[in-house]
Amino acid sequence: MTTTDTTLVIGATGTTGSHTTARLTAAGHHVKAAGRQGRPVPGAQAVRFDWYDPTTHTAALDGVDRVYLIPPLGDPDPAAVMLPFLRQARTTGVRRAVLLSSSAIPEGGPAVGMVHRALPDLFEQWAVLRPSWFMQNFTGAHAHALDIRDHGIIRTATEGGRVGFVDAEDIAAVAVHALTDEQAPNTDLVLTGPEALSHDDIAAIITDVTGRRVTHRRLSHEQMRDRLAAQIPVEFASMLADMDRAIAAGAEDRVTDDVRRLTGRPPRTFRTHLERATGV
């Protein structure tokens, strides 16, 4: 990638999009920072973009040759809006697409898994990032973080299942390589931190680092689904509760070397992330 190429970052003010935009602009790359409000982003060209408003798509794609794709949040069928956009992107000159998916969703699986399946047929240069669960879920504006701050509790249906939690900054570092390296990965990349931790482990580390007691409250699958359904559509709530059940069964108990291999440095530990986030 040269500094004259232009990357469209969809969700440029979000958890991974903001870090990806900052890394690209710091390296001198031209970025169109897309969001529903088109809010200014330092070093980037702000552009309004709404997955559900096709009238915003043409201007966002103007002059773009690669795109970082954040699916519409909470949509159980994102392919319905993403695939028409990606076909338009291909016709307007986009050569490379990097999609943010999830380690819990395989190619052809539910939700964004159908976009994953379609991507190689749409673009010769592509990558699908499949990160594990974000460390930022415990320190940002996620429901877990709010429960920790307000009640000292993490509620899940994961039982003692372990997860290779990953820092969003490490995801962004991989995204930049996938967008800018001379050769695109042309594969999916499962991104994890350096260790697999249970939510009991997470609670213990938060307690140790912050000095405030935090506990993991184990819910049943049904309790978790109903709790989520009070805030999000029931279909999406059921899918998230199913993911917790899969974690309990060991589906996310793994670590990979993809962050180190793509970036040349090891991924951050949860303790390191927590210390940075809390200023301890």
The arrangement of helices and strands along the chain is EHEEHEHEHEHEEHEEHEHHHH
Taken from the alpha-carbon principal axes, the silhouette is globular
Report the radius of gyration as a whole number of Å. 19 Å
Please give the alpha-carbon distance between the first and last residues. Answer: 38 Å
Number of helices: 11
Helix content, binned percent = 40-55%
Detailed description of the structure:
40% of the residues lie in helices and 17% in strands. The chain has helices at 15-26, 57-61, 79-91, 113-122, 143-151, 168-180, 199-210, 221-229, 234-248, 258-263, 270-278; strands spanning 6-10, 30-35, 45-48, 66-69, 96-100, 125-131, 153-156, 162-163, 188-191, 197-198, 215-218. The strands form three sheets. A seven-stranded parallel β-sheet has the order 3-2-1-4-5-6-9, sandwiched between helices. Strands 7-11 form a two-stranded parallel ribbon. It is globular, with a radius of gyration of 19 Å. Helix 1 crosses helix 6 (168-180), helix 7 packs across helix 11 (270-278) and helix 8 (221-229) packs antiparallel against helix 9 (234-248). The N and C termini lie far apart (38 Å). It contains eleven helices and eleven strands. By secondary structure, it is α/β, with parallel strands linked by helices.
